[in-house]
Amino acid sequence: MCEHKSCPVQSTPVFDPRLTALLDARIASADRASIDDEIWRSFGEAWCIMATDLSGFSRGVAEQGIIPFLQTIHESARILIPVVEGHGGLLLKMEGDSFLAIFRDPNEGVRTAIEMQRAVRRYNDTGRDPVLLGVGLGYGRVLRVAEADVYGAEVNSACILGETYANGYDILITRAVRDAVHGLELEEFPHVPPGAGGAYRVLYSSTANAR
Questions:
Q1: 67 pLDDT higher than 90
Q2: Does residue 21 belong to any structural domain of this protein?
Q3: For the chain, is the Cβ count within 10 Å smaller at the N or the C terminus?
Q4: Number of domains in the chain
Q5: In a domain, 129, yes or no
Q6: What is the pLDDT of residue 207?
Q7: pLDDT per residue over 143-165, tens digit each?
Q8: 92 φ, ψ to 5°?
Q9: Which domain holds residue 190?
């Protein structure tokens, strides 16, 4: 899902056969630049990337065991996936306590992230075991090389922000998202993923009755 993230079990990506052929040709080619151009022409698309993570998951598993947190994963999916789909997002994959989704419009990506955090706040206000969601967003041209796989600098940045740095209720965005979505209240975030040019925390009301 995210190129920076290691996982004890990783499957070999299943690429589009056209991409496999181009990569095979690239190995022996003296003109890799033209092949790279062809890959971008064939598979390059502009998307807003959303990467999420449940804050404190690993620590909680170590302290309480896995079953309570399987319940948390189940509940978070029940709460959040309808929000993503209701805003036209495409859920690419879920891995453990994280998921990756894409949106054509970065405005919808940000609106979805805010609505997700508000839904989590409403859920947590009921007194049940809390779901603490962190969200990272990137935006730009990426390689969509399979139904559930995208690659690119903004994918990596979204994953780093969402999975490494975002705490509960955080929405962290790259400079590209900031430039594409106007009217946001932001504060600079000190941890900038490589190549992102900047990182920002979205300031919003997460109260249950916010609109």
A1: no
A2: no
A3: C
A4: 1
A5: yes
A6: 73
A7: 999 888 999 999 999 999 999 99
A8: -85, -45
A9: 44-203
In a domain, 28, yes or no: no
pLDDT of residue 64: 66
The token duo for 100 is: 């990756």
CATH number, domain containing residue 178: 3.30.70.1230
pLDDT in tens, 10-55: 456 678 899 999 999 999 998 999 999 999 999 999 999 999 999 8
Read off the tokens for 145.
């090389």
Half-sphere exposure of 150 (CA within 13 A, CB side): 31
4 part of a folded domain: no
Interhelix angle 67-86/57-64, nearest 10 degrees: 150
The amino acid occupying position 46 is A
